[in-house]
Amino acid sequence: MDADVTDSAGTPADPEPPAENKPQDGSRGGSQEDSRDAAAQNGTDKADGTDGTGGTDGTGGADEAGEGAGDTGPDADPSPDPGAGAADGVQTWADRPKDGIAAQHRSHWLRWTALAASFLVLIAAGVGWWLYKKLDGNIRTDTSVAAELKAYEKERPTPVAQDALNILLIGSDSRSGDNREYGRDDGGSQRSDTTILLHLAADRKSATAMSVPRDLMADIPSCRTADKQHTREQFAQFNSAFELGGTACTIRTIERMTGIRVDHHMVVDFNGFKDMVDAVNGVEICLKEPIDDADAHLKLPAGRQKLDGEEALGYVRARKSIGNGSDTERMDRQQRFLGALVNKMQSNGVLLNPTRLYPVLDAATKSLTTDPGLDSLRDLYDLVRGMRNVPTDKVQFLTVPRQPYSQNINRDELVEPDASRLFKQLREDQPVTVVPAGELKDKGTDKGTDGGTSDGKPDDPGSGTPTPEPTYSGSSAADDLCKQ
């Protein structure tokens, strides 16, 4: 054993003297080279006989050398020398704790970032779900209409144009509840203040909104009343259908009049319209003359101005203080205002911006009563998404061709065959051309070159110069109210 150790240690050559900055002992705090130099020097001294204990066989020197080296004996400490490798740029143990702490900090930072991101995603998902359920819950569903219409399915028109949609929009003039401030509450009864049949083309490249005057004389079928009674068939003022048999009776009256199958319906009350205008931050109009109408709660100066919800509601409902006070003129004003509202929503990117769209949807859904086919937010979103790419000049408004009723000039009747021709175009999803009434009148004193007459209604077929598409008096969402 001793011989092996002695051979391994050997007799060192003349060692170089230690540098001044190196430790002179063989402690473990020095480098391995320093330790070996110290051991070699010690072994040389003993070989010269100064110690007498191992001068001839080198046993003592070998032992001392092995102890000083610290890594050659079998019991040597296996731990690396802390100072090893520092001189030649290799990372030392003294440096490693610093890197470990930095890596640990980075690991902690990444974990906290991932945790925070996950938390934010959960919060966003929760808020989104809450908003969705809130809007979805705002909508009221009228299941009784579907049941009533099902009972009369055999008499209803068959859809002609696949993928086209016909939606009946009914503005209720009920004075009950929150609407009490707009007139006397007569026990909750109501009539359809505004009725519009909205036709969305199958290719979703155009939309035509046809107003039906509330004073129009129409054939009203036998309808079931709220107390389960049945009315008689009658020729009466159109909006009495809503009072007699509600939405179902109004839909059946429209279908009988036009031959157009109504796919969906929406009933909107006054406050819903008002809140929608406020949600888009008002709508701009122009007035040729000031308005002061106490019944409509409206007082406005002449000129260009932006109306808030309350003012807009008074503007579209006013009759006595604007123009000739007729319902016909009021419908034209309603159409132009709705066009300006659509233009405001599209031009300001409301339909494409969820943040701006939410208040509009909230206001709309709070005031809506629909059929089961449109009673969810997803259904309404699909409807809005189908309309948002329709150019504003292809969102058109017109009124059914009508004239004063022969037996009562305060009522209207359809002008035939003009009305039937318009109904056929919508039924078959054919394009409808709408221009301002003034343009039709400017084309001739009696007959227009586009098939129109001087009273703003389409001319009889075959008279004047024929055109591929009959032209009707109306407006579009692209029209500037201040240029009319």
Reading side by side through the largest sheet, how are the strands ordered?
1-12-7-2-3-4-13-17-16
Whole-angstrom Rg:
46 Å
Main pleated-sheet profile: 9 strands, mixed
Q: What's the mean pLDDT score? A: 73
| Beta fraction | 15-25%
Q: N-to-C SSE series?
A: HHHHEHEEEEEHEHEEEEHHHEHEEEHEHE
Structural category: alpha/beta
Shape type: globular
Q: List the total number of helices.
A: 13
- Low-pLDDT segments, ≥5 res: 1-15, 17-80, 82-87, 182-189, 443-468
Distance between the termini: 118 Å
Helix coverage percent of residues?
A: 25-40%
**Number of DSSP strand runs:** 17
What does this entry look like structurally?
With 484 residues, the protein is an alpha/beta fold. It has helices at residues 2-9, 32-47, 59-69, 96-138, 143-151, 240-258, 270-279, 309-317, 327-347, 354-366, 377-387, 418-427, 437-442, and strands at 140-141, 165-172, 192-200, 207-211, 217-220, 234-237, 264-268, 283-287, 291-293, 298-300, 303-307, 368-370, 395-399, 402-405, 408-414, 433-435, 471-476. The strands form 5 sheets. A 9-stranded mixed beta sheet has the order 1-12-7-2-3-4-13-17-16, sandwiched between helices. Helix 2 (32-47) runs antiparallel to helix 3 (59-69), helix 4 (96-138) packs parallel to helix 10 and helix 7 (270-279) packs antiparallel against helix 10. The longest helix has 43 residues, at 96-138. It starts with a helix and ends in an 8-residue tail after the last strand. 33% of the residues are buried.
Defining key terms:
alpha/beta, 17 strands, 38% helix, nine-stranded mixed sheet, two-stranded antiparallel sheet, 484 residues, disordered N terminus, 13 helices
